[in-house]
Design goal:
single chain; 190 residues; mainly alpha; Arc Repressor Mutant, subunit A; Tetracycline Repressor, domain 2; 2 domains; 70% helix; 0% strand
Length: 190
């Protein structure tokens, strides 16, 4: 690390290469060793351990990046445009593209307050969309606004497991999540 606390450019490249390789490798080989990760990243095993003292630290870095990418995807889906159902559909489709890249399926520990805060950053714009839809009448008023973001997380994990085991084609994942969540949020006919 430099005196300013930032990684040197070559160290940053190594960290990116390690995480990128681990994302791909661990999605297909969840039990792959750190040595296999190093090989896939094109670095030595010592370099991997210099940046990630344990497999748990590497997995946490992957989850951290996935959460950042999911947050960026939700905010980049233009949640303020169109009606709430259209905006929610775009947000879900954006999250599904991120989920497709990060096929590591694991729960975030309730004790990891930093990652929990990151999850909340993703949930806020989704909750705001639900609240807007409830005001507009396009989303059921009897559904707590915190429920759809939580349900989306569970649905993403469910379809990711099915994509990994081959029982759900990637092309069907996003439409299935959108249909399941959005249709459940639409007002019931009188």
């Amino acid at each position: 690390m430099s005196p300013t606390g930032h990684l040197r450019a070559d160290a940053e490249r190594n960290v990116r290469a390690i995480i990128d390789a681990a994302i791909i490798l661990l999605a297909t080989e969840p039990d792959a060793s750190m040595e296999r990760v190093a090989s896939a990243a094109g670095v030595g095993r010592a370099t991997v351990y210099r940046h990630f003292a344990s497999r748990e630290q590497l997995v946490r870095a992957i989850i951290d990046r996935a959460l950042q990418d999911a947050r960026d995807a939700v905010l980049g889906s233009r949640p303020e445009e169109g009606d709430a159902i259209e905006a929610l559909t775009r947000a879900i489709e954006s999250v599904m593209r991120v989920a497709d890249r990060y096929r590591l399926v694991m729960a975030i520990s309730p004790h990891d307050t930093d990652l929990r805060r990151r999850v909340e950053e993703i949930a806020v714009p989704l909750r705001q969309l639900v609240e807007r839809g409830q005001r507009e009448g396009s989303i059921r008023a009897d559904v707590p606004a915190r429920w759809p973001p939580a349900a989306l997380g569970a649905l993403v994990q469910a379809v990711t497991v099915q994509m990994i085991d081959g029982s759900l084609p990637e092309s069907q994942a996003a439409p299935l999540v959108v249909t399941t969540l959005v249709d459940g949020l639409r007002p019931r006919p009188s």
